[in-house]
Amino acid sequence: MRTLLWGVIPYVVFVLLAAGLLWRYRYDKFGWTTRSSQVYESKLLNIASPMFHYGILFVLVGHLVGLFVPESWTEKAGVSEHTYHLFSLYGGTAAGVLLVLGIALLLYRRRTNAPVFRATTANDKLMYLVLFAAIVLGMVAKLTHASGEGYDYRDSMAPWARSLFTLQPDTDRMAGVPVMYQIHAVVGMALFALIPFTRLVHMFSAPVQYLFRPYVVYRSRDPRRVGARPERRGWEKTGS
């Protein structure tokens, strides 16, 4: 079971993520979007959306640092394990609370606004469920082992995560990991597998072309011609 969970499933998730992104780009390029519902309601969205996006950005950065920056590197930078633990505990909890509040407001908006609720698909509901579960489980795991120096996942889960990229998964590292952390990791992998098939796919989009496109020039309308329709062009004229 340990080999399956920590030595096989991660690569299955990676294949689903990579192949799903390629498939989505090839066959659903115009569906590569958040399917924004701002046209139905914007007041609450303007509050909830920044909370959600900033929260998930902070959480993602925290996970990347915790899993892929070795402890020896932070020690050389002058950051002791105790300092790192406190920063991870309080900073991670604050980011998690911000993210949970953002998700909660987005869910409230979807449920209470009729047009937004009608635009919500079963796919969206599954995505919100898995995303919410991953965040809450991570916070519970963190707070459950917050006493003292806390649980040092950088000595177990982090080496395992890095070993995946060498194609030699060190599954033994996950043997003594607390159950809540293991459940959080499994739900997190499920979330990554779902990304290509949900609106979360837009996280891989970046409007880089905007940096190189020509300026859009707007001209004021001639006040003498306000309300006047220009003469029809040849292909616009009717046969009468």
Structure, described:
- With 240 residues, the protein is an all-alpha fold.
- It contains 8 helices and no strands.
- It has helices at 2-27, 45-68, 71-76, 81-112, 114-118, 122-144, 157-163, 179-194.
- Helix 1 (2-27) packs parallel to helix 8 and helix 4 packs antiparallel against helix 6.
- The chain is globular.
- The relative contact order is 0.13.
- The model has no long low-confidence stretch (mean pLDDT 84).
Helix content: 55-70%
* Shape estimate: globular
Tally the beta strands: 0
Mean pLDDT: 84
Please count the helical segments: 8
Protein name: Respiratory nitrate reductase subunit gamma
Keywords: Cell membrane, Electron transport, Heme, Iron, Membrane, Metal-binding, Nitrate assimilation, Oxidoreductase, Transmembrane, Transmembrane helix, Transport
Subcellular location: Cell membrane
Membrane topology: Multi-pass membrane protein
Layout of SSEs?
Layout: H1 2-27, H2 45-68, H3 71-76, H4 81-112, H5 114-118, H6 122-144, H7 157-163, H8 179-194
Helix pairs in contact: 1-8, 2-4, 4-6, 6-8
Pfam families: Nitrate_red_gam
Transmembrane segments: 6-23, 44-69, 89-108, 128-147, 179-197
Domain NarG-like: 3-221
